[in-house]
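In the current project phase, the collection of sequences with tokenised folds has grown. A sample record is quoted in full directly below:
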Amino acid sequence: MKLADLLRVLPPMGIEGPAFPSRLLGAFRRKSITFCTGVTDDTTVVYWFQSRTFTIDLRLPDAAATPVLARQGWVGDTLWDGDSQELSWSVATGYQLHNQWPEPARFHHIGNSVLEFAPSGAYVEDWRQQCSTGPLLGLRLLGMIDRKTGEELPMDGGLILAGEHLAYAQSRSPSVHQALRNAADLDRALAEGLVTSREIESYEVSVAMGGRIVSHSTQVQKVGEEIAVGDFELQPDGSVVMSRIVDGDLRSLRFAVDLHLPEFAFERQTSGTPDALRWMEAEKGHLARHTAIAL
């Protein structure tokens, strides 16, 4: 079955919600990042997809023209600290070989904007929720089954569907991951012949905004193609298997269902005091003259 068929037969799961604020669920585009030095980047293509327990993240400084060695993308477990009100990420594998964003995050919400502050004061990121209503599905990749031998190999990744937007992540094959295990960084790994450029690029993080066609990806050849192509099967134990070509062979990718809400209202507004609302109404001729929803 295709993904649309899976959504029809998959029961709701994870309705108890995440440990962190539910308004962080969904698909976010980074509008800008401002650093403590006074400089701002509003050009780099950055997307953050959030399920109940994991994140898919894609960062391309020069969009489709980003060189192979400069691309960023990862999937990681989300960890919420209720005392400090901070969210952090545990990343087992990523496109790059080290964690480039080690700080936890503190958040402030206003309108459809989620402001992420680094506790050190290094930067603040302005994220914009891309979703309004629709399904919310999170599938966390657990492993890859060799259909010839039945052996299950480790594989990291996931799929998050948020409204009409979708993100898919799949780590490099175990052999490539092993070759990179002790490498300092991708530049040296390539220069030393540990891996090829194509093997580096094999770590996939793709996003499809507003449909099922890839708009941005660590694998530029995927742009314009359908995302997460494969046949899905719901297993008796509640897991999901997707049949997909990996390294030229048909493999079975096994996923755990992290979250499935057939219809979810993503939060795009925040509250204000009565005095604040009266002020906005009284001054709307000036305040609202050029306003629009920024995504």
